[in-house]
Amino acid sequence: xxxxxxxxxxxxxxxxxxxxxxxxxxxxxxxxxxxxxxxxxxxxxxxxxxxxxxxxxxxxxxxxxxxxxxxxxxxxxxxxxxxxxxxxxxxxxxxxxxxxxxxxxxxxxxxxxxxxxxxxxxxxxxxxxxxxxxxxxxxxxxxxxxxxxxxxxxxxxxxxxxxxxxxxx
Length: 169
Fold this sequence. Notes:
single chain, mainly alpha, Four Helix Bundle (Hemerythrin (Met), subunit A)
């Protein structure tokens, strides 16, 4: 069973990395969104591997369901070009900067984790959904509500961009 767990872990890891790569490198916004959705599915699979089915369900419900639909509406409202190519190829220097922006923090974090590994913390195997709900609507009410404001700002920005593009034609 341990071998099967490792195979499934690496499958989800490949899905996450491939989806993230597609989301970042695709010049087409719809394909980039599909890469993001694949990445979010992979993260939900990782939650299942960590024996956190509630988090996996919330990942699918909130991010794959609601956020990806919100992004899709924002893409459709912005009226991208008919060819589907929203941008020019960035060239070599922006790609080098993007790689450095990824590699430098990952190198520092990896080196830090290797040289000074954090102490293990005992946590319960499962969190009762009732306790999670009480925490979200008690101690963490403000961050929970701020997420909705971020989503509202993203949708309002998409509508604003759509109106600006219509006014310039």
